[in-house]
Amino acid sequence: MSALAALAAEVASCRTCPRLVQWREQVAAEKRAAFRDWDYWGRPVPGFGDPQARVLILGLAPAAHGANRTGRVFTGDRSGDFLFAGLHRAGMANQPSSHHADDGLELHGCWLTAAVKCAPPANRPLPEERDACSRWLVRELDLLPEPRVVLRLGAFAWEAALRAPALLGETTPRPRPRFGHGAEHGRLLGCFHPSQQNTFTGKLTPAMLDAVLVRARTLAAG
Question: What does the pLDDT average to over 2-6?
Answer without folding.
Answer: 95
